[in-house]
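hiii, so i know i said id send this last week but things got crazy w the move. better late than never?? heres the sequnce for the chain we talked about at the cafe, plus the structure i predicted for it. fair warning i was half asleep when i ran it
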Amino acid sequence: MKTMLKAEHVSISYKIGDFKDIGLKEWTMRHLKHQYHVETFMAVEDVSFELKKGDMLGIIGTNGAGKSTLLKAVIGVMEPRAGKIERNGNISALLELASGFDGDLTVKENAYLRGAMLGYTKEFMDETYEQILDFSELREFEERPFKQLSTGMQSRLAFSIASLVQPEILILDEVLSVGDGAFQEKSAAKMREIIDGGAATILVSHSLNQIRELCNKVLWLHKGKQIAFGEMEPICDRYEEFLTSGKGLP
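okay and structure toks below
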């Protein structure tokens, strides 16, 4: 089966230190005197995984594990310090659902704005706008300023727009928790539809129930390092034990 996404020994680092809080003149003086402090922080270290067509990978780990940083490298926003990522298909990413909107524009105007940002044509948006309203359950709010919507409602609109197309690689960062329970079920059903269409999917979620229900593979990260990658059930069992007892790390 075709490999859609492959990460080989990926490492991502940041430079941190007091140089970020000073001006150019002060930085130059400290640089000449060797009086400024710089450290390299490894956000992701030596991570490898592979996804075939139809695979759904759940990425798990506590806060600060490097999950979101790894996703940014997968979609090409960040370049790894070491290793490489191979992508074999068009990518659709749902990372920060409520970003990229204008609070003073209406729901309808923001729908078209977000669609344009995702590369959808006006003709495509004209054809699918009613579908977006129905799926997001925001028809009665379409002429309201976007800033009057709750965060959950804003996320529902973003999810509805971004899930319109059939991507070959789909990246989801904590997006199936938007809205109430009923909308979460509808979102999960939509994701299953996309997965059944053959997309290789990555889901980051703090909900082990979601991971168990949707994913066939799991990547466990802890403080930037890869703890395990493989079949879903044994890794989820091990991770659950770690959450309850603190045991399970190598």
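btw The chain has eight helices and nine strands. thought thatd interest u
miss u guys!!
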